Amino acid sequence: MKIVKENHNKLIIDVLSSIGLSKKQAISAGSIMSYADEREISTHGILMLEKYVERIKDNTINKSPEYVWEQKSNSIYTLDGDQGMGHFLGDLAMKKAIEIAEDKSIGLVFVKKATHYGASGYYTNLAASHNMIGFSSTNTMPLIAPTGGSERILGNNPISFAFPRKDDSPIVLDIATSVVAAGKLILANQLGESIPKGWALDKHGNPTEDPYEGFEGGGTLLPIENHKGYGLSLAMDILTGILTGAGYGSKVKNDNIGFVMLAINTDNIMSEGEYNERLNDLISMIKSTKKAEGYNEIFLPGEIEQINKNKSLQEGISINDNLYVELKKLITSLGLSPNKYFD
Amino acid sequence: MKIVKENHNKLIIDVLSSIGLSKKQAISAGSIMSYADEREISTHGILMLEKYVERIKDNTINKSPEYVWEQKSNSIYTLDGDQGMGHFLGDLAMKKAIEIAEDKSIGLVFVKKATHYGASGYYTNLAASHNMIGFSSTNTMPLIAPTGGSERILGNNPISFAFPRKDDSPIVLDIATSVVAAGKLILANQLGESIPKGWALDKHGNPTEDPYEGFEGGGTLLPIENHKGYGLSLAMDILTGILTGAGYGSKVKNDNIGFVMLAINTDNIMSEGEYNERLNDLISMIKSTKKAEGYNEIFLPGEIEQINKNKSLQEGISINDNLYVELKKLITSLGLSPNKYFD
Predict the structure, then answer these.
(1) Do B213 and B246 belong together in one domain?
(2) Nearest CB partner across the interface for B292, out of A76, A149, A249
(3) A192 within some domain
(4) ipTM greater than 0.95, yes or no?
């Protein structure tokens, strides 16, 4: 089942608006969830819509937040998000970082009292589209144990960097600090499949191949390369949780998430011509690397997502059958007509 | 064999000075190599001294560099290192970043035409000792293939973050973007041991358990969690190679390395009291996490190194027998007396 981008976007905005989310928040959420789904970053797309509806209904997400800016220095601002929709707050925050960097060469924004912001790469991509280097992270619900532990203490806090390219899509790295997302274990459990040993620990802290023991039964997701991913996740939690004034560690909840947004103006560092010539040379080295057996092509970070996007713009955004049924139920339950979006 | 820190430090300074390295460069190298060895980060310690001597002798490292600063914006400076000793240039660069951040809240320094700088954690630790958040990376000789490739195109470019703590050692994360260092494969090959499958690929890009095929035979080190580590390594190469004007990708050589140094003044973000209270709370959560079977304690990034340092200060710095023999040979060959340092 395919849905054209305009309808995908409209569906999200209509659903969120129908339960009272302010229009500007709904528009941000629509843009960023469409960004994710058209790139097949499905975990951060319309799949989340029902959860957001629940959180808006129970006031975890504030329909009309009275967010507050504070200037901390020439280059640093903080944003108290008043539990607004994370996508809206993230968009505001990166736009502010870009605005600061236009004038001061570096813009750094810390956000507290925020909610789930979706795909980190959206925000860094936004910086890159202004010819800046973008960096972003958010903390998440606790999912991983520090190395040597057997309880969920840290999120799989993502790391995203984007680097602009002239006349081409930016390089967009967007990775979680866990080996895999929790969703993969939930799915494996539903399908009755086992999981590789490096994905998760059971609740006693032992490696497990049982997806239930690894997550729903109280296990923990393994961080990438053990202590390395634990350290990266902790570093991201200090930036997004401790320094922002948000929740941190096992105290992170859906309504006290923190973000960090950094924009660096490349104009100040070297000429656009020199930067692009050098970056294109590095990209050529990578793309022309002798292939490993079984590989035909080497992709840059974000390149597969860009290919998916081009396909989605031509053919529409893919929605799987289960999700289609769930979405129709959701839309109908809110008194809207599914026919308006699906044909 | 143990050596007291003062003698360890003096040995390095005397050896480097004896072949004409400028005094201030030798002093930086001594401090930073002692920093590494007292923490048992042995790969970046006195083990490297003979290589540095070779590089100074063949002018890969410039004995008396005429380095050049350039201001790019209020917060951004660049340093052309003129092939000086990497430790000296790294120290200068992070000190400049700290100085900028004292006034402008954020300091960002890009370094080109540099040489090997040793342990990344030294530089970020320096920022933390000024109550700032430190971030540092450098690019390295090519060692890893981009995912899908079978040639060395990118370094195992490290990522280091440090976060200050009041009345306690900072949190210092310092990780390479490869699963293990090349030295581990060289050692396994010497010992005739096999290696785990996740460490390296052979020259055809296939997983290998043969340490020779994985490195000296033309293989590539695997990046942490495959495409994630590849992406992080690439991001670090763009920051340290492309943007600095240094070498990048497979063009990195021992005399055209690049660094990035970032210092963020936490005074501007939240009060020292609030920051420390929150960070200590997060640290308590981590330290008191229920232990996995087989673990008695959970360590923070940099904590084991701090324990090693305290031990080294009491008992002296450990030098293994092979290295001791090699060092005596090196010292004698330069007309110095080993007895001056070892007793």
Answers:
(1) no
(2) A149
(3) no
(4) yes
